[in-house]
Amino acid sequence: MCRKFHISIIVFLSLGADIHLKAQSGSLTLEECYLLAKENYPEIKKLGMIAKTADYTIDNANKGYLPKISFSGQATYQSQTVSFSDALGALPISTSLPSLSKYQYKIQGEVDQLLYDGGIIHNQKELTKANNQLQTQNIEVSLYTLKQRINALFFSILLTNAQVRQNEIKKSSLQTQVQKAEAALQYGTAYRSNVDELKAEVVNTDMANTEYISNRSAYLKMLSIFIGKEISDSSVLQSPEPELLSSEINRPELKGFDLQKSVYTLQEEQLKSDLMPKVSAFFQGAYGRPTLNIIENKFGPWFITGVRFSWSLESLYTSSNKKQILELNRKATDTNKETFLINTKMDLAQQEENIKKYNHLLEQDKSVINLRHSVTQSAEAQLENGVITTHEYIQKLNTEQLANQTLILHQIQLLQAKYNQKFISGN
């Protein structure tokens, strides 16, 4: 088990090292962030600990098949012993018979070899493996939830990147108008206030950019902490491609519920094993007084060997109740699974509606942007001809800018909704 785990870790770290090189080159994908975050998260260290603990526990269980060796000794004084002369005194025996000494001594060693235990050791090993799988799966569930947090940071960074780019487009348009206004001012066809108002709006655009860049820097730092790799402001986060998703739910929690039920099943098998008889072979060797030939009343060695049988029915008193408890635990696990599936289906339904909503909003955004862009172009010509004021032009430009920013927001929200759906379904 440990060997397989070590091989998996080596492959996992190799992939992480390759991604680290790609991150240093300035490019990073969402899937790479998932892998790096999993590699960096402290919880993953528990996987190795769980595997080693299971190996040690199974190894200890296997040692139950080894012979059990024990030693004991005693020295006693007995208030009364058998006197063969008194017991057999009425018989016509000329030889005097010894009596047992009141001081008796014994040093004994015993070897006990298990022959049959009703399957207790086997079930212990299977239960250990099942618990190991359950604990490992619980860690996988914990690591899986990282994806949701990575999604939030990753798409927030994509949004701020797009907002900065769109703001730069607005700034470029404003700077063009500043140049035209300054030229008109030189020819006496514009007022200084027109130039100043345009320049003030350029400053406002720079302030908005400062806000976007500051937010992006904060998100990048948080993402860097998650993945354990430094992400510079110049790093490129690649926008993920939308995927065709399956409606089937494949969340790691589902496997956890099934593994929990398998643990209860093995615990029930253990209850059956407790009711079975135990058989072992034994050998006892001893030295002391008296020996097995008690008539001699001398120090000497002896041994006994044979087969030992034991059958405790104590478990019968509690076995039925324990089985009922395990059955209730199984039903509770089924209920938890059903609750999880219902909540997951509701979350998926919400994301599906969000995807429909954002698709519809994007169509509307495009129509609004086309109209707003046409209005802004007309306003530029009107500004040059003195038909509208600079303030009116800036209002129309800001309205177009707001429409573009709304489009960007809905594009990122649509992409994030699709990846939220992917996370919720586990596909």
Task: Describe the model.
This protein has a single domain, classed as Outer membrane efflux proteins (OEP). 67% of the residues lie in helices and 12% in strands. The protein is built from ten helices and six strands; from the N terminus they run αβααβαβαααβαββαα. The strands form two sheets. The chain has a four-stranded antiparallel sheet with strand order 2-3-5-6, with no helix packed on it. A two-stranded parallel sheet has the order 1-4.
Offer a concise description of the structure:
With 427 residues, the protein is an alpha+beta fold. It has helices at 2-24, 30-40, 45-62, 84-87, 120-144, 146-186, 192-227, 252-274, 316-384, 390-425, and strands spanning 27-28, 68-77, 103-116, 236-237, 278-289, 300-310.
Tally of helical segments = 10
Task: State the CATH superfamily name.
Answer: Outer membrane efflux proteins (OEP)
- Any idea what the shape is? rod-shaped
Helix content: 55-70%
Count of extended strands: 6
Low-confidence stretches: 1-17
Biggest β-sheet: strands ordered side by side in the sheet: 2-3-5-6
Overall residue-averaged pLDDT value: 89
Secondary structure: elements and pairs:
Layout: H1 2-24, E1 27-28, H2 30-40, H3 45-62, E2 68-77, H4 84-87, E3 103-116, H5 120-144, H6 146-186, H7 192-227, E4 236-237, H8 252-274, E5 278-289, E6 300-310, H9 316-384, H10 390-425
